[in-house]
Design a protein that fits this description.
The protein is an alpha+beta fold. Helices cover about 60% and strands about 15% of the residues. The relative contact order is 0.15.
Length: about 290
Amino acid sequence: MPHSMTGFGAGEGNAGGGRLRMEIRTVNHRFFNLSAKLPSDLAPLESELRERLRRDLERGHISVSVRWVESPAREASLALNIERARVVVARLRELQTSLGLVGEVSLDLVARQPEVLVFDGSDLPSVSWPELEPIAAAAIAECKGMRLREGAALAAELSHRLDLLEGAARRIAELAPARLPRERDRLRSAVSELLDGRAADDARLAQEVAVLADKLDITEELVRFASHLSACRAALAGDAAVGKQLGFLSQELGREINTMGSKANDAEIAQQVILMKGEMEKFREQLENLE
């Protein structure tokens, strides 16, 4: 069963002394396109996460968000930038002298200035890929499950469109044979009117009818159309990513429909061709969401 490119999945697990949650959202895209938002301490694992996602999600715009739901226990670690503190004190005293202000430059005032006291990042947790991978696997599995369910609904809709197209093609096949006798009679009547009662050249008339029959013949188009419909159904019955394959087949189906329309020479056949073009447009729209 084909997969949709629309899906959501989430996974949680313990890692690095805390608890992480990963959420994956996917929408349609022509290629594999990843947008990952990870905490800074997990940034080194992005490449491994990318390869893990690519293994299971072949196409789509994939947004991944990872956050701590329970932060790891850390000791508050502050670093003192003594050079920055000296500059701050010197500038504050310079300001005091310039403006003639009274008072002392206090420790509290200096400590509140930017970059004087900074948190030391050396206590950030270390998370390895074996810790993150099970969380990613759970989120991917849930996302794939949703994409499979959406894909089943899409496949049913696409199959319905194929049935409608097949029905229209069958109706055209039924209508097509009646065109030649009608055109032959119209041609004979027109020639008889032009000759004003004189005898027509039956051999020449038969030749013109043969040429006309060749121009109106849509047997090949109907055969190819039926073959493309069968290929579409076979693709929908499989488990592989079929979006690109069905996209190509939809172009071929559209080409046959256009050719049948150009050879229609019949109001009801033309009406069926218009119906088929509408169904093909709906078919292509649904394909946009298929992996």
